[in-house]
Write a structure and sequence with these properties.
This protein has about 170 residues and is mostly helical. Helix content is about 60%, strand content about 5%. The protein is globular, with a radius of gyration of 15 Å.
Length: about 170
């Protein structure tokens, strides 16, 4: 029997195949994040959590979301952190500036993002930053990102991602 975690991971792999295959995302598995994981692994988990929240909102409340776009943006929400030691003076500056850097890289990979896509990535650090998200998808990633960051230390959340055709990240 397939579990909900496997369903989420398979969905993220399918929807996010282009992002997962990109050189930028592959490099993101070399950049440590939160001291315990990597940017890629954290972002993959955030995408899975976002998908599960969207499914819950639809099944229970019939709230529709753009979950496919949310998965893509979740995979790329922290990609701007890459090279943080050279780009930012300190953690505060990184918190403030990496979302805009992430949007630029996301647009290199996906093409021009619409307002929702930019909102998802640009405001995912709220309430650490002043401006809150303007979309439901923006709030979902904010919740998923904080939850993932708080649970990145769990051994089950540090296991390698198995990406079909790409090997183990």
């Amino acid at each position: 029997m397939i579990g909900i975690r496997e369903v989420a991971e398979d969905t993220v792999r399918e929807v996010g195949a282009k992002v997962l295959a990109s050189g930028q995302f592959q490099e993101a598995d070399l950049q440590t994040h939160h001291g315990l994981t990597t940017v890629a692994r954290h972002s993959f988990r955030v995408a899975c959590i976002c998908y599960l929240i969207c499914r819950f909102l639809y099944v229970v409340f019939k709230i529709r979301t753009n979950w496919q776009l949310l998965i893509l943006c979740a995979l790329l929400h922290d990609i701007g952190i890459m090279g943080r030691e050279l780009k930012y003076k300190n953690n505060r500056q990184c918190c403030r500036l990496h979302p805009k850097d992430s949007v630029a890289i996301a647009q290199d990979i996906l093409g021009e993002l619409d307002d929702t896509g930019r909102d998802i990535i640009e405001h995912h650090m709220w309430p650490m930053t002043i401006v809150p998200p303007h979309t439901i998808e923006g709030f979902i990633i904010t919740i998923a990102d904080k939850y993932s960051a708080m649970t990145d230390f769990l051994p089950a959340n540090r296991r390698p991602m198995l990406l079909e055709g790409l090997g183990s990240l």
